[in-house]
Design a protein that fits this description.
Elements: E1 2-5, H1 10-14, E2 22-23, H2 30-39, E3 45-47, E4 52-54, E5 64-67, E6 70-73, E7 80-83, H3 99-102, H4 107-111, H5 115-134, E8 136-140, E9 143-147, H6 149-157, H7 169-183, E10 189-193, H8 200-212, E11 219-223, H9 227-243, E12 252-254, E13 262-267, E14 290-294, E15 309-313, H10 324-331, E16 336-337, E17 340-341, E18 344-349, H11 358-366, E19 383-387, E20 413-414, E21 420-421, H12 425-435, H13 440-449, H14 454-457, H15 469-481, H16 484-487, E22 489-495, E23 504-508, E24 514-516, E25 528-531, E26 534-537, E27 543-548, E28 563-569, E29 581-587, H17 592-606, E30 610-612, H18 618-625, H19 645-650, H20 658-675, H21 696-703, H22 714-726, E31 746-748, E32 755-757
Helix pairs in contact: 5-6, 6-8, 8-9, 15-21, 17-18, 20-22, 21-22
C-alpha cells in the first residue's frame, strides 16, 4: 500500500458518472470558507446565512453538493489516502476484525487484559471510533470517496442476509442525505422513495443499532406495513446486527440474547482512548437505559412517547384502515418537545397502487419537497424527500466500484459480486417494459417496483381511471426522458414597470408558478381589442385558457384545493403550435387576489379568452371590475339570449350540470386519443410520432381522475375547460325551427285573366 496524493476535486470528477447530486460552486465566498476552515469554526448543522447543511464534525468543510434540493457541506478531502498503486485495485474492502479482539465478548474482559495487550490494539479501536463519528475516506477507482459514519457502520459492522453489505454509490448518497437530515434542526427526517431490494430495511436496521448503542436514556422505534413485518425486521435484522457488534461498540444488553420485542441496553461500552484504556471506572455501570422496539401498525403507534429515532419501513404499503398520513401526524409529535426537534424519522418504501395505500404515501412524499417551506423553514410534512432512480441501484448492474452500469458497456465489467456485467440496467429495464406492454396492470406494478421516475413509482392500476392510461403513461415516459428545462420554462408574469393594465412581460423564475412551453412572438403578445370600453382578446383565433378557481384565500387548518390554469392552442394560421397545451399553472398563492391577478396577466400576455367555472365567481368579478369582461367566455351550450342575468354579466360555465361534466370528461378523453402518446393506427398523426403534452403534473392528474370526485383534480378541470373553450362550436345548441303557417290563394285560370277564388 502506498500513500497517494489527492490532487483532484472529488465531486467534480465523480459528477460525470453520477447524476444523483451536483457540485455547488461559489455558495460561500472563498475567503470566508478558508478563514473558517483555518479556525475550524464550521458547526455541524444548518448554516442559515449561506443555506447549506454541514455534516462535517471536524469544524472544516470541503465540497458542497446538492442532493434532492439540499446543499450539503462535506468534510475536506484528506491530503493523502492509503491506496493500492493501480486504480483498478482501488475499491471498498471490508476489514476483518483482528481475531484476538473478536474473542473478547465485552468491555469487562477488555478491562482485565494486560496493559501490553491494550497498548497494541488501542490505535485500531480509536480509529474505529473516529470513523464512526467522522466518517471515512477511501480511494475508489482513483477518486477520493467519502462515506458518513452511519454508512461506515453499515458496511463494516452490519450483517445482512448475504453476509456483509456491498458498497454502492446510491447508498453512499442515501447516507449523506440522511446525515444532512439529522444535522438540520428544521427537519424531522427523510421520506425515501426507493426501488425493490435497495437495502433500505438493512440500512434502517443498522441505523437503529448505531443510534441505540450511542445515546443515553432514549428510545428507538420500528414500524412497517404490518406488525408482523415490524417484528420480523426487529428479530431478523436489528437483533443480529446488535449481537455481532465488536465489544468496544457493544453495550451490555438486558434480558435474552434473541429478544422478540425489545432490545434494552443497560450498561454502555465506554469510548476507549489512549487516556482511559488502563482506567477501570465504576461509571461504566451507570446504565445507558436505551431501548429498541417495534410496534403494531396503527394510526396511534408510539402515541405520546418520546423517540430519538423512528425507522418507518414499507410506509407506502399501509392499507386501510391504517393510514400513513394519520400515523405520521401522531408520530411526528413523538420527535419534538414544543418547537424543538429531538428525534428523526427514517422513512422508506416502494409504493402500492394509489388506492391501496400508495396515494397517502404520495401525499406525504410530495409534502416533503424541500422546494416548499413554511415560515419555520420546514416542509409541509417536516420530512425531506429523496428519490433514487432504478438504474443507480439495480441488483446485478453494480460494478466493483459501486457505480451503476446504466448502459451496456463496450466490454464486460466486473460487478460487486465478482461476476461479469455485459448488459446495462436500462437495457434490462426496457426489455421488461416491452414484454409487459400488453398487460397494463403488470407493467404498472413493474414500474412501481423499479421506477426510473417519481411518476413511475406512483403508477396506478389501469382500472381506476376514466382515460386511456396507456397513452398517458407513454406520454409521461417521453416527457420525463427529456431534459425538462429545454422544453418547459418555469417563470412568472408581471406588468411592465409595475404599471397595471399596461403590457405584461414573462420572465424565467425558478420560484415562479407558471410552466410554459411556448410564448408568442412579440407582435402577438399583449394583443387587446377595446370595444365600448371593454377589453377583448386579440388572439382568440389562436387558442384559449381554462381555469379552475377558488374564492377563499385560506381554509381552516390550512390546505385547500389549488387554483389551476391551462393554456391551449387550436388550429390557426399564425406562427405557433397547433392543438397543443402551452401553459400549466397549479398552485395556491398566499392570497386569492394574487391568483386572480396572475391568471389575468397570463390571459393579457397571450391575448386569449378564458373559460372559468362560475360556481366560484370572484375571479370572474376580478376580470369584470378591471375592464376585461370581454376575456371571459360565456357558457357555450346556451345562446346569449338564454343566459341568466348573472351569466350575461360575468360569463363562466356552471359545474353542476351532469351534461357539462360528461362533456368536460369527453373533451379530455378525445384529446388524449388524438394528441397524447403514440397513435399506433396513424389515424391522427404518423404512427411513430409521440404526442406533444409536456406537463407531467397534468398528465399525472389525468391518470387518476375520478369523475365522481372532480374537486380533487384541479389540473384536470382547468385543462378540460381549455379544450372545451377551443371547441365551443361543438356545444352550441341547434336553432329550433319555427313552423310558419302559410295560406296560399287559389286562382281560377280560365279565360284571359286569372281570378282569385274566394
Amino acid at each position: 500500500m502506498v500513500a497517494e496524493p489527492i490532487v483532484s476535486k472529488v465531486l467534480q470528477n465523480k459528477e460525470q458518472k453520477n447524476k444523483l447530486y451536483t457540485a455547488v460552486a461559489k455558495l460561500v465566498p472563498s475567503n470566508v470558507m478558508s478563514n473558517k476552515n483555518r479556525a475550524k469554526a464550521w458547526k455541524y448543522g444548518h448554516q442559515q446565512k449561506y443555506d447549506f447543511i454541514v455534516i462535517s464534525t471536524t469544524g472544516q468543510v470541503g465540497e458542497i453538493i446538492n442532493i434532492s434540493g439540499l446543499n450539503i457541506g462535506l468534510p475536506p478531502t484528506p491530503k493523502y489516502l492509503p491506496a493500492p498503486d493501480k486504480k483498478e485495485q482501488q475499491y471498498w474492502r471490508r476489514s476483518e476484525i483482528p481475531s484476538v479482539l473478536s474473542r473478547i465478548p465485552s468491555i469487562f474482559q477488555w478491562n482485565e487484559m494486560p496493559p501490553v495487550f491494550k497498548d497494541k490494539w488501542i490505535d485500531y479501536i480509536e480509529q474505529e471510533f473516529d470513523r464512526r463519528e467522522q466518517g471515512h475516506w477511501f480511494m475508489n477507482n482513483g477518486i477520493p470517496t467519502y462515506m458518513t459514519g452511519a454508512h461506515y457502520m453499515y458496511l463494516q459492522w452490519a450483517t445482512i442476509d448475504v453476509g456483509y453489505p456491498d458498497f454502492r454509490e446510491a447508498n453512499r448518497v442515501f447516507f449523506i442525505f440522511w446525515e444532512a437530515c439529522k444535522a438540520d434542526n428544521r427537519c424531522f427526517g427523510m421520506s425515501y422513495l426507493k426501488i425493490r431490494r435497495s437495502g433500505f430495511s438493512f440500512m434502517g436496521s443498522s441505523e437503529c443499532v448505531n443510534t441505540g448503542t450511542l445515546a443515553k436514556d432514549s428510545r428507538v422505534g420500528i414500524l412497517s406495513k404490518t406488525g408482523s413485518d415490524a417484528k420480523k425486521m426487529f428479530t431478523d435484522k436489528v437483533v443480529p446486527i446488535a449481537n455481532r457488534l465488536p465489544f468496544f461498540f457493544k453495550p451490555i444488553q438486558d434480558g435474552m440474547d434473541k429478544p422478540k420485542t425489545e432490545l434494552a441496553f443497560r450498561i454502555p461500552a465506554s469510548k476507549i482512548t489512549k487516556k482511559n484504556m488502563h482506567v477501570v471506572s465504576d461509571n461504566e455501570l451507570s446504565g445507558l437505559d436505551t431501548t429498541i422496539d417495534w410496534k403494531n401498525t396503527d394510526d396511534n403507534s408510539y402515541d405520546g412517547e418520546k423517540l430519538l429515532l423512528l425507522v418507518h419501513d414499507e410506509s407506502g404499503k399501509w392499507i386501510n384502515p391504517n393510514n400513513i398520513l394519520h400515523n405520521w401526524r401522531v408520530t411526528k409529535t413523538c420527535l419534538r418537545l414544543g418547537s424543538r426537534i429531538i428525534g428523526k424519522c427514517m422513512m422508506g418504501s416502494t409504493s402500492n397502487a394509489l388506492n391501496k395505500g400508495g396515494g397517502n404515501f404520495k401525499k406525504l412524499y410530495d409534502d416533503s419537497s424541500t422546494d416548499v417551506r413554511n415560515g419555520n423553514g420546514q416542509t409541509r410534512s417536516g420530512l425531506y424527500s429523496l428519490f433514487i432512480p432504478m438504474e443507480y441501484n439495480m441488483e446485478g448492474f453494480i460494478d466493483r466500484f459501486g457505480e451503476p452500469v446504466v448502459s451496456a458497456p463496450d466490454k464486460p465489467v466486473r460487478g460487486i459480486d465478482d461476476l461479469m456485467i455485459s448488459s446495462g440496467a436500462l437495457t434490462y429495464w426496457e426489455a421488461e417494459v416491452e414484454s409487459l406492454k400488453s398487460d397494463p396492470d403488470a407493467l404498472n406494478e413493474f414500474y412501481r417496483q423499479f421506477p426510473r421516475t417519481e411518476s413511475h413509482a406512483f403508477r396506478d392500476e389501469s382500472k381506476s381511471t376514466l382515460f386511456n392510461l396507456t397513452k398517458i403513461y407513454q406520454q409521461l415516459d417521453y416527457a420525463e426522458s427529456l431534459i425538462r428545462e429545454q422544453y418547459v420554462t418555469r417563470g412568472s408574469f408581471g406588468w411592465k414597470d409595475g404599471k397595471k393594465d399596461s403590457a405584461v412581460v414573462f420572465y424565467p423564475d425558478k420560484r415562479g408558478r407558471f410552466n410554459v412551453s411556448w410564448t408568442p412572438k412579440s407582435g402577438l403578445q399583449n394583443r387587446i381589442e377595446t370595444r365600448n370600453g371593454i377589453k377583448h382578446p386579440g388572439n382568440e383565433h389562436m387558442g384559449s385558457f381554462g381555469c379552475d378557481s377558488y374564492d377563499i384565500s385560506g381554509v381552516v387548518g390550512g390546505g385547500g384545493s389549488n387554483g389551476a390554469l391551462h393554456g391551449m392552442t387550436k388550429f390557426h394560421m399564425d406562427e405557433g403550435p397547433v392543438n397543443e397545451f402551452f401553459l400549466e399553472y397549479v398552485a395556491r398563492p398566499q392570497t386569492a387576489e394574487i391568483f386572480f391577478e396572475e391568471v389575468l396577466m397570463a390571459c393579457v400576455f397571450y391575448g386569449m379568452p378564458i373559460l372559468i367555472e362560475n360556481n366560484k365567481p370572484r375571479l370572474l368579478y376580478h376580470f369584470k371590475n378591471r375592464g376585461y369582461r370581454g376575456f371571459c367566455m360565456n357558457r357555450p351550450d346556451k345562446h346569449y339570449n338564454k343566459l341568466s342575468k348573472t351569466e350575461k354579466e360575468l360569463g363562466g360555465l356552471p359545474n353542476s350540470s351532469e351534461d357539462i361534466k360528461q362533456s368536460h370528461a369527453s373533451a379530455i378523453e378525445s384529446y388524449i386519443e388524438k394528441y397524447v402518446g403514440v397513435d399506433l393506427e396513424g389515424t391522427f398523426r404518423d404512427s411513430d410520432e409521440m404526442g406533444t403534452m409536456p406537463f407531467v403534473r397534468t398528465l399525472e392528474d389525468w391518470a387518476k381522475f375520478d369523475i365522481s370526485n372532480r374537486t380533487a383534480y384541479d389540473a384536470t378541470i382547468s385543462s378540460g375547460l381549455a379544450i372545451m373553450a377551443n371547441q365551443k362550436h361543438l356545444y352550441t345548441p341547434e336553432q329550433k325551427q319555427k313552423k310558419i303557417s302559410l295560406t296560399f290563394a287559389t286562382y281560377r285560370n280560365s279565360g284571359t285573366i286569372s281570378e282569385i277564388i274566394r
